[in-house]
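Each field is set out underneath.
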Amino acid sequence: MDADIDVPPFFLCPISLEIMKDPVTVSSGITYDRESIEKWLFSGKKETCPVTKQVLSSDWDLTPNHTLRRLIQAWCTMNASLGIERIPTPRPPISKSQIAKLIRGAKSPQSQSKCLRQLRSIAAESETNKRCLESAGAVEFLAAVISNDGDDDDNENSLSSSSSDDESFDFARSRSDEALSILHNLHLSETVLKGLIGKNGEFVESLTRVMRQGSYDSRAYSVMLLKSMFDVADPMEMISLRTELFTELVQILRDQVSPQATKAALKLLIQLCPWGRNRVKAVEAGAVAVLIELLLDSVERRTCEMILMGLDQMCGCAEGRAELMGHAAGLGVVSKRVLRVSHIGSEKAVRILLSIAKFSATPAVLAEMLQLGVVAKLCLVLQVDCGGKTKEKAREILRLHARTWRNSSCVPMHLLAYYPN
């Protein structure tokens, strides 16, 4: 389009400043292009009108402005000779009744597969369609498909291993994978996520099973969905979790399924460990050793911070401290990360060392901390800018064992001057 063409200002979206293809009016009375306002409301998770700053109605009703669209189309047609293409009439958003009818018809495995393909296509069209899928019961349908995959698995194990049984099992698994992919891409609202986690833990168990048996993509989607669910969960829903969940989270970290899945699994461990016996369950699942191995190889700042947060959580119990000290690289890698990641990373690393120094300081451990340079690193912490809390914890560790460490030849003379009195 020629830059000199004078476009009527009310044809332009206030967000994108481009000619609107599908103008819709929000409850504040301002009209926007559908794609732009959907990104603002749903992807950006805003609740106000961009122009008036007025809080919009909770249902975020987007009313098509057909009159303005026809005016824009007519103007485009009149200026076609100037290189302006006519804007096509947009497809109307899907309705809840259409989605409900589609789901009701998905009775057989074949019809379920067809329904899932249609739901994926509907969700891909717009954010409005995604919200419509939520409110029309599609989430419950998708969750049921994923949960029923476990029933198919049980049935398959009870049958003979014929080729038809294998094909049936694979068919059920593909439906489950498709449903999980759609659920992940819906970016579910807080209300819907709470509904999923509130089903007596059944859906959590279904996702745990997918993490154990599913494809790499499905395992990644499962852990990311679990992370979103526990972000909005009540504390009581985090207390009685099964050991299998922690086993599969650790396996996700061990297998390095994807960077996104790794971060989601780390966040989940950090989130769940403070509740009940979860930190012990995580330690028994092998989390400490896996986190140490990850810390040895990780260079990305945020990942290192989360690993140290997780180790700090697990060193809050005797089992976790024992695992850390039992690993050949445990104390060394934690000490090495002090002053090398960030202020947060240094604080968490020193907190881990404080847990060891306070509750697990055998003569052998104290000697190891000295030989590995942990004591020298703590003295260095006292003379650099790394945060008051970190310095105070380092000072506490050095004071706790001053009798053992203060006169050691392993601590460089220039650092001994900073040893606390």
User: Anything to note?
Assistant: The chain is about 65% helix and 0% strand.
